Amino acid sequence: MRTHRFSVGSARVRGGWARSGFTLIEMLAVIAIMGLMMAVAVGGFLHWGRNSAMRGAVMNVRAGLGMARQYAITHRVVTDFSFGNSKSEMDVNTGWYTIAATNALIGTTNFLPKGIAFTNDPSEPTMFDGGQLSFNFDGSCVGEAVPATTNIVIANSHVGLNITATTVVYKLTGRFKCLVWGEQ
Asked: What is the reported pLDDT for 6?
């Protein structure tokens, strides 16, 4: 008796062996569907990346404010949180901040991610010279000219979308929180 061996993916037909598999049209359809899925995913990742840089900048500024306030309370000295913008070699605005006590720099100068800067007006982020908040030994903000609340606005206009975040610092307590977050 004669036995026939069949390999996986092939079948015996009259006149020879036929291979089972995918046709060219089936493969093109699968590639087209995968391309559409990747196009949708890339758009989501770009938006996620823009927001993560902005979230990181807001968290850095809030950490700097907290460090300045905490240093003022624990060391019982007036501590300054100074912030402003500088232009890079590619003419991109980038924000920076420093924390200093009386004649002493507490931390290094911290820079925000490229394209994220401090501003007064989110539509014109280049029109900001800088600012300073001083924390007293009890944690409150010092200064006669300091309003009851101080807004620190951060804008990301480098990527085409104007994304802004506003951190409010209360004079009486020195506490701060992010109030406004959104796209312009």
From this structure: 46
Q: Is residue 9 part of a domain?
A: no
CATH number for the domain that contains residue 177 = 3.55.40
pTM of this structure: 0.69
Mean pLDDT, the chain cut into blocks of 10 residues (184 residues total) = 53 61 88 92 72 85 91 92 81 83 83 83 65 89 78 74 81 82 60
CB atoms within 10 A of CB 152: 24
* Whole-number Cα distances in Å, 17 to 7, 8, 14, 25: 10, 12, 8, 22
In this structure, is residue 156 part of a structural domain?
A: yes
Residue 19 lies in a domain: no
- Residue 16: CA count within 13 A, CB half-sphere: 2
Structural domain including 92 reads 24-183
- Indicate whether 125 belongs to any domain: yes
Structurally, the chain folds into a number of domains equal to: 1
Task: Look at residue 53 in the predicted model and tell me its pLDDT.
Answer: 81
Outline where 4-145 has alpha helix (H). Answer: 24-75
C-alpha 5/C-alpha 21 separation (Å) is: 19
- Say how far apart CA 17 and CA 3 lie, in whole Å: 16
